[in-house]
């Protein structure tokens, strides 16, 4: 269950990062409120996850999920352009997240 909390914490990282961009510097109230909600949800879910998982695993996994998710949202929603080499590093980040899960023993 802790890993599920962690995955959703990472998803809410993507939510708040995306809605923060859409808030245009916190000038659009609905997106500003969604940003705050996403931040709170992400932190609360991380707090649940680290009840059972080591912080040294949980925090980087949550952040990594958020980073990879934000990259994907940026490319799809905001038409961000990434070089092929950058995609190699994104894949390496994803492999690292999966590797942490597989080798953690939790």
From TrEMBL:
<dbReference type="InterPro" id="IPR045324">
    <property type="entry name" value="Small_multidrug_res"/>
</dbReference>
<dbReference type="InterPro" id="IPR000390">
    <property type="entry name" value="Small_drug/metabolite_transptr"/>
</dbReference>
<keyword id="KW-0472">Membrane</keyword>
<comment type="similarity">
    <text>Belongs to the drug/metabolite transporter (DMT) superfamily. Small multidrug resistance (SMR) (TC 2.A.7.1) family.</text>
</comment>
<dbReference type="InterPro" id="IPR037185">
    <property type="entry name" value="EmrE-like"/>
</dbReference>
<feature type="transmembrane region" description="Helical">
    <location>
        <begin position="27"/>
        <end position="47"/>
    </location>
</feature>
<keyword id="KW-1003">Cell membrane</keyword>
<feature type="transmembrane region" description="Helical">
    <location>
        <begin position="59"/>
        <end position="78"/>
    </location>
</feature>
<protein>
    <submittedName>
        <fullName>DMT family transporter</fullName>
    </submittedName>
</protein>
<dbReference type="Pfam" id="PF00893">
    <property type="entry name" value="Multi_Drug_Res"/>
</dbReference>
<feature type="transmembrane region" description="Helical">
    <location>
        <begin position="84"/>
        <end position="103"/>
    </location>
</feature>
<keyword id="KW-0813">Transport</keyword>
<keyword id="KW-0812">Transmembrane</keyword>
<keyword id="KW-1133">Transmembrane helix</keyword>
């Amino acid at each position: 269950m802790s890993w599920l909390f962690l995955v959703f914490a990472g998803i809410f990282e993507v939510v708040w990062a995306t809605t923060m961009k859409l808030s245009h510097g916190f000038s659009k109230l609905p997106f500003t409120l969604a940003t705050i909600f996403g931040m709170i949800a992400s932190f609360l879910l991380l707090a649940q996850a680290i009840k059972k998982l080591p912080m040294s695993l949980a925090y980087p996994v949550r952040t990594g999920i958020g980073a990879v998710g934000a990259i994907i949202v940026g490319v799809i929603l905001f038409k961000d352009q990434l070089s092929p080499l950058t995609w190699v590093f994104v894949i390496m980040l994803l492999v690292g997240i999966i590797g942490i899960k597989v080798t953690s023993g939790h």
